[in-house]
Write a structure and sequence with these properties.
The protein is an alpha+beta fold and 485 residues long. It contains nine helices and 24 strands. Helix content is 25%, strand content 29%. The chain binds flavin-adenine dinucleotide and FE2/S2 (inorganic) cluster.
């Protein structure tokens, strides 16, 4: 999927792993989190091998909006309530420091990545939520916040909480400047980690320490991440011809519109939903909003992606599980993984080099705050029960002959349910409708023409090819499915 960042990717290509290696650290996953961590560890003198399944930064990082900000939506009041002042301040400080570190790195290495200071606004539309309490909490946490009533914007705003001097940038151009000197292997998916051995098809890296930065943690044996993460998908348009806009804007209301400039483009984001719950109107809603706000603008690009959300809304960064002290994880950035990845690199570098990171406690993957986590945990369990129950007990609702070209449905054949897509050329493609991860029934995403899993966010195209983890397997196609039923 072409995005503003990857359509002219500045990243060089790297070879596959075709030998066995030893290193101090193996970093698995070459997105923002993995590359920043590998860079920071290498800068501390460690021998690091970075292993990427596909191309560097081809995952969520290439599909981001690229706000570099400690303003993370309506979060200050929630953080204070769920974690208390001490830990909530750690979160704020970690992210404010991270934004400063991006700036410092860009200055120090003279990186040409369009980094540009911007104020970050959480805004309320005229009928939106009251932001006074959120503002007070932001101040308590130490944010550079002010409450303001901005005027002259191309969209209606009643009030806004502004975090001053945050930033935006071009993420892939930034990352490209960190790569020289790193040992990197691309198209080398890690198949398994056993003890200190990280196994790819072409070779094994044996490392003292291992960092898993694979977006959804790839190891299911420990840490119970499958029970603690869900994925949320959101959509973006890059518009040309829109009026100038300064600042980065995020709607505090349910629609959650996001607006910011990048060069000659205006990025409009929104339509977020739990993966597997797309009603097929996500791009339509975004396009309708673009027409309402910027009638003269033209759409240059459209893309979407999904990020992992934790039970309590704070990333899991630190030891992967208490049983494996040499294994570390960075995940669950909740759509704020630019600053979050820098926090991850800081925390993991301290952890792996015997140093101290002052904000580690709030990110500990082993934390459990009942008031923040229980309802999300129960909701996740409910999805799993419903997803498996629907597959086993609810009959197929569609007859394959009724599926229109370019659409899909769940149809029965010989007593079994299949996900059936009718291609625009009329051909039917049938796949097993059970998610290979834990067996939930998949749902059709008409915007992306994909089968998506509401339980933990695996995705597959209509032929069954895997598009997104945590499933490691593709869907089984049913090649016998009759073309006329
Ligand atoms: C639509 C959208 C907009 C966003 N906007 C913002 C924003 O404005 N500001 C912000 O701060 N954050 C934003 N985010 C969040 C941010 O983009 C992500 O949190 C961040 O990019 C995640 O980086 P990552 O390194 O964890 O994951 P990824 O970039 O997905 O990297 C993980 C890498 O691991 C690789 N991998 C997976 N499995 C294996 C394996 N077995 N072996 C080897 N490699 C493997 C993948 O191929 C991938 O390259 C947004 C997210 C979305 C979805
Ligand atoms: S059952 Fe977990 S992703 Fe589908």
């Amino acid at each position: 999927m072409q995005t503003l960042w990857n359509r002219t990717s500045p990243l060089p290509a790297y070879p596959r792993l075709e030998e066995n290696l030893h290193s101090d650290v193996a970093v698995v996953g070459g997105g923002m989190a993995g590359i920043l961590t590998a860079y920071a560890l290498h800068a501390r003198g460690l021998r690091v091998v970075l292993l990427e399944a596909d191309r560097l930064a081809s995952g969520v990082t290439a599909h981001t909006t690229a706000k570099l900000s400690a303003q993370h939506g309506m979060f200050c009041e929630r953080l204070l309530r769920d974690f208390g002042l001490h830990l909530a301040r750690q979160y704020m400080r970690a992210n404010l420091d991270a934004v400063e570190q991006f700036r410092a790195l860009v200055r120090e290495k003279n990186i040409n990545c369009d980094l540009c200071d911007e104020d970050a606004y959480l805004y309320a539309a005229p009928n939106g939520p009251n932001l006074a309490r959120e503002y007070e909490c932001a101040l308590l946490l130490g944010a550079p916040a002010r409450l303001t009533r901005p005027e002259g914007l191309p969209f209606p705003v009643r009030e806004a909480v502004c975090f001053e001097r945050q930033a935006r940038f071009s993420p892939l151009r930034f990352l490209a400047a960190l790569l020289p000197g790193l040992t990197i292997y691309e198209r080398s998916p890690v198949r398994d980690i056993r003890g200190h051995a990280v196994r790819c098809d072409g070779g094994t890296v044996t490392a003292e320490q291992i960092v898993v930065a694979t977006h959804f943690p790839m190891l299911e044996r420990c840490g119970l991440y499958g029970l603690r993460l869900r994925q949320e998908r959101s959509y973006l348009l890059a518009l040309t011809g829109a009026p100038p806009l300064s600042g980065m804007w995020l709607d505090a209301g349910a629609a959650g519109w996001s607006l910011q400039r990048s060069g000659r483009y205006l990025l409009l984001g929104g339509s977020a939903h739990r993966c597997g719950e797309n009603r097929g109107e996500s791009y339509d809603a975004l396009r309708a909003q673009a027409r309402r706000l910027f009638p003269a603008a033209r759409e240059a690009l459209a893309w979407s992606s999904q990020d992992c959300m934790t039970l309590d809304g704070v990333p899991y960064i630190g030891p992967y599980a208490s049983s494996a002290p040499f294994l570390h994880v960075a995940t669950g950035f909740g759509r704020w993984g630019m600053s979050g990845s820098m926090a991850a690199a800081n925390l993991l570098t301290a952890q792996l080099t015997g140093g101290r990171y002052p904000y580690a406690d709030i990110f500990s993957p082993q934390r459990f705050f009942p008031s923040a986590s229980i309802s999300a945990f129960l909701e996740g369990a409910g999805y799993a029960v419903r997803g498996i129950g629907r597959r086993l007990f609810v009959p197929a609702q569609t007859a394959a002959r009724d599926i229109a070209r370019g659409h899909a449905g769940i149809a029965a054949w010989q007593g079994k349910k299949y996900g059936v897509y009718r291609h625009t050329d009329g051909t039917l493609y049938a796949v097993d409708i059970a998610c290979p991860h834990h067996g939930c029934e998949l749902t059709w995403n008409d915007d992306e023409k994909s089968w998506d899993c509401p339980c933990h966010g695996s995705r597959f195209d209509y032929t069954g090819r895997r598009l997104a983890e945590p499933s490691k397997a593709a869907l089984r196609p049913c090649t016998d499915f009759p073309q006329e039923v």
